[in-house]
Automatic annotation (TrEMBL):
Keywords: DNA-binding, Transcription, Transcription regulation. One of its GO terms (biological process) is DNA-templated transcription. InterPro entries: LysR-type_TF_proteobact-type, LysR_HTH_N, LysR_subst-bd, WH-like_DNA-bd_sf, WH_DNA-bd_sf. This is LysR family transcriptional regulator. It comes from Pandoraea anhela. Belongs to the LysR transcriptional regulatory family.
Amino acid sequence: MTSEPRARPPLANLETVCVVARHGSFTAAAEATGLTHGAISRRVGAVENWLGCALFERHGRGVRLTCDGQRFLGRIEHAFDVIDAAADQWHQARKAPAVRLSVVPSFAKLWLLERLQSLEAGQPFIDIQVTTEHRNADVSAGEVDIALRYGRGGWASVDSEPLLGETLYPVASPEIAQQLRHASKGKDSGASVSEMLAMPLLHDSDLTGWRAWCGAQGVSLRPRARDRRFEDYTVVLGAAEAGLGIALARSPLARDWIARSRLVRLSDVEVPCPLQYHVVTARREKRPEVLEVIACLHAAARPDVRTHIA
């Protein structure tokens, strides 16, 4: 029959012994902990009574550890290290979940970054780790948890759902806008397609948007040597502002950027873009943190949700 274990002193008393040893006096330990000198003395005394030996001996205005005290303190500090290590492992296991999100740089700059804090503001907190890249991250292979892809959808081996559609209309620098006003003789409806096609067209990866805008007005657009292609859509907008040609505004993606720029709208005609942003995940994604981020993205993309721009 096993005997009952001897009652242990409170951890607070053992911590007090360590504080006294570290500071070398009861008075300094009292100042460091906010306790009274008497409380420090009682805690140390309780541990000494439990051990049946003295831990400190007085000298001058302070105390130093006895031989027994040195041995005991070494074991106690080791025990506290074990407790701290266990606590660290527990906190690591329970830390905020992370969701890896892949986007193209232009979408990050024009839409995502100014909404990122609000996307992470839910309870519990979810750490959204954003990767910006022009290539399509391999979601099915686990490179990222969510990818925001621009296209028509229907990608193989992944699940996708529409996030953000766009409407298109042409914009250019004030100087080009002025030239077109002269060419169109100040028509209220803005410049015609033929008048704009006399200028270089600016676009990113392909002409899909421009083909849709021109096609809606009965004009078939073919690639032209004078047009300029840039990999990143924000560079397309920057080139338009610099007077290098005419770009298509993609609303709502570029709405706030254009409002802060010097770009001028050239036509009242706007058409839906055949391409849109989609949320892409691995097949049958069920992790709660991933589904929560997807729900937050959809909420942020609703037409009535606007982010304050200073």
